[in-house]
Task: inverse folding
């Protein structure tokens, strides 16, 4: 059985004789077919391109709004940038043209003496060139009491030159507390050998926690720390005693001894016990015993300040009840 063959010529010939409703239906079908083929061929790609262009237009409008805001604040931004440039140029001019290591070493030794610590190691490391400056690091080893070491580090930041502190390590050993750090100073390689202007002193951090307990010692062995007050210079020609070569922090009070009306303090350092009376000297800072009580010993120490004048500072050794 074979299907009848569709004869388009006969179909179109007979369509002319169709009634009007059939012609209308056929015309609508042909118009719909033409619209569908045209939309798929021409209108759909154009519609996609239109949507892409509209999305790009929204992005461009947002960028135009942002650029307009930047343009409105351009003058203020330019003024701030010029102020930052002037400030940076001023800071660069304040850097010395030479390394000035000898002067810095003298300042470090002076700060160590002023704060009652022993600077026993200074290693000058190689200079480190940077894009805008040259960095000069120094490795320091300092021994002393907790609060004295903190005051020493605080004083480093108050020097007239720029000094920063890095790689701080603190540990306790047989000689007391050992502080190791790297101090860095800086110089300007492009100053042409001209002397740097005086640095305007800025806000300085000052260590003021002297009243707090030393976390590295038991409460019974605490040494009182108070700021120094102006005093007369000590007799530097006086013969120093054996106990003046030992740091005060190495002593602990273990008791008292009375002989008639006179009272002696018994202080132990390492494996030896020493007897001191009022007026005896103790420690490297010209410490002199001023009072002896059953529970503590009062000392008065002398040390140079940062300007070379002399200050006096009282210290207290408290009885170790566990001795």
Result:
């Amino acid at each position: 059985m074979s299907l009848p063959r569709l004869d388009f010529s006969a179909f179109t010939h007979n369509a002319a004789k169709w009634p009007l409703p059939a012609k209308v239906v056929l015309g609508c079908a042909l118009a719909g077919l033409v619209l569908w083929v045209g939309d798929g061929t021409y209108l759909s790609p154009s519609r996609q391109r239109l949507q892409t262009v509209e999305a790009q237009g929204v992005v461009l409008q947002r960028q135009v709004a942002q650029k307009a805001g930047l343009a409105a604040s351009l003058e203020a931004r330019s003024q701030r940038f010029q102020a930052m440039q002037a400030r940076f140029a001023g800071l660069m001019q304040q850097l010395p043209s030479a390394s000035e290591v000898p002067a810095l070493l003298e300042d470090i030794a002076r700060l160590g003496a002023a704060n009652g610590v022993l600077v026993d190691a200074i290693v000058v490391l190689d200079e480190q060139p940077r894009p805008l400056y040259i960095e000069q690091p120094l490795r320091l080893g300092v021994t002393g009491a907790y609060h004295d070491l903190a005051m020493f580090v605080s004083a480093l930041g108050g020097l007239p030159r720029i000094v920063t502190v890095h790689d701080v390590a603190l540990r306790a050993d047989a000689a007391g507390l050992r502080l190791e750090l790297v101090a860095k100073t800086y110089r300007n390689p492009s100053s042409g050998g001209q002397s740097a202007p005086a640095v305007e002193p800025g806000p300085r951090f000052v260590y003021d926690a002297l009243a707090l307990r030393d976390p590295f010692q038991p409460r019974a062995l605490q040494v009182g720390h108070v700021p120094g007050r102006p005093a007369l210079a000590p007799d530097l020609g006086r013969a120093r005693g054996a106990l003046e070569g030992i740091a005060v922090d190495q002593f602990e009070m273990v008791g008292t001894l009375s002989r008639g009306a006179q009272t002696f303090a018994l202080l132990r350092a390492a494996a030896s016990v020493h007897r001191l009376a009022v007026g005896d000297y103790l420690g490297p800072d010209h410490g002199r015993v001023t009072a002896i009580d059953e529970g503590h010993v009062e000392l008065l120490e002398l040390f140079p300040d940062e300007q070379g004048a002399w200050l006096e500072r009282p210290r207290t050794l408290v009885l170790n009840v566990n001795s």
The CA atoms of residues 286 and 301 lie 5 Å apart.
